[in-house]
Amino acid sequence: MNYFRPAIATIQGYIPGEQPKPGTPIIKLNTNENPYPPSPQALEVLRSLDSEWLRRYPDPYSRDFCKAISEALDVPADWIIVSNGSDDLLNILIRACAEGKERKVVYPTPSYVLYRTLASLQAAEVVEVAYPQDYQLPIVELAAAGGAVTLIATPNSPSGHIVSLKDLRQLASRVSGILAIDEAYVDFADYSALSLAQEFENVIILRTLSKGYSLAGLRLGFGIANPQLLSNLFKVKDSYNVDALAILIGAAAMKDQAYKNNCVEKVKRSRSKLAIDLRQIGFEVQDSQGNFLLVTPPNQQAAKIYQSLKEKNILVRYFQLPGLSDKLRITVGTDEQNHQLLQAINLSA
Ligand SMILES: *Cc1c(COP(=O)(O)O)cnc(C)c1O
């Protein structure tokens, strides 16, 4: 019996990084969480919560959170859509745009593995265009693929490279469909493509509070695009896709830009230091504008080091994928965590 649609029955499903319970003695450098706690203002909201917020349904448009975003980023509130993590918004976008052979999902690789999963669930044709060695955006090939939606993560994961605004502009003007710019790691980067949402009617910028704001467990993301584009995404999203707690805590975190910026500066300093230290022990390290480093250990040792670190309770990410099987993606931790990582690598060598 075929209980399920062929698209569902035949795909593997996304495999998230391991998520051990908080409190277990593990150094967790595998899913790009921020090593610092969320803003004290956000935690205060949680402590002083009036239970009415839980008894009632949440605001379907997360307006308190939109207002905080609007003030922090200087974008009009009606240019914002809020989602249950940016994964939810990626899903909404792909469900809204993609289907079958005609309405394709296009993106460069290597990039966020979830793009393929979401497109496959939609039974949409996927076109993957490989990045060249130097990670220059393959604009011509991407545009020629004719996506109903073209997805660019910048800074990209797992490579950590950032795409220039010039290249993004070129791509935005050449694609016939929507260009979704996934800025999950923008807080750790030198610049943002936010202005392109105003320049191009087909551009949407995706953001998350999971990385820069240390709120991965809360599940909160948002998109910025013109109200016309957003109006169609609102039709697709669950009515109450974001819970009342997330709206309140997210608004408080967004208002506390100073705290977030301070954590981000610490991570960026640790990123530079970790890159230097890893190069010193013979690792190849790709320059990164995210809160992680894609590294190639010497002598094809990636899988072995991953396993040996895991036995020492240090989790990093190993992707058994073409072009990545000799590499590890290491989230930047605190200086103390990074020090322990380096010691463990030295022991396992
Ligand atoms: C982490 C990540 C996301 C998802 O973030 P959530 O808001 O936690 O769903 C989206 N895109 C990329 C490239 C990411 O690395």
Task: Provide a short characterization of the protein structure.
This protein has about 350 residues and is of the alpha/beta class. It is built from 14 helices and 12 strands.
List keywords for this structure.
14 helices; 12 strands; three-stranded antiparallel beta sheet; 2 domains; binds pyridoxal-5'-phosphate; 40% helix; 349 residues; Aspartate Aminotransferase, domain 2; alpha/beta
Question: Can you walk through the features of this model?
Answer:
The protein is α/β, with parallel strands linked by helices and 349 residues long. It has two domains: 27-37 and 258-348, Aspartate Aminotransferase, domain 1; 40-256, Aspartate Aminotransferase, domain 2, CATH 3.40.640. Helices cover 40% and strands 17% of the residues. It has 14 helices and twelve strands. Strands 2-8-7-6-5-3-4 form a seven-stranded mixed beta sheet, with helices on both faces. The structure holds pyridoxal-5'-phosphate.
Oligomer: single chain
CATH topology of the largest domain: Aspartate Aminotransferase, domain 2
Element-by-element helix/strand order: HEHHHEHEHEHEHEHEEHHHEEHEEH
Q: Detail the poorly predicted runs.
A: none
Main sheet overview: 7 strands, mixed
Radius of gyration: 20 Å
Write the layout of secondary structure elements.
Elements: H1 6-10, E1 27-28, H2 40-47, H3 52-55, H4 63-73, E2 80-83, H5 85-97, E3 100-109, H6 114-121, E4 124-130, H7 139-144, E5 147-153, H8 165-174, E6 178-182, H9 195-199, E7 203-208, E8 221-224, H10 227-236, H11 244-255, H12 257-280, E9 284-285, E10 292-296, H13 302-311, E11 314-315, E12 328-331, H14 335-348
Parallel strand pairs: 1-11, 3-4, 3-5, 5-6, 6-7
Antiparallel strand pairs: 2-8, 7-8, 9-10, 10-12
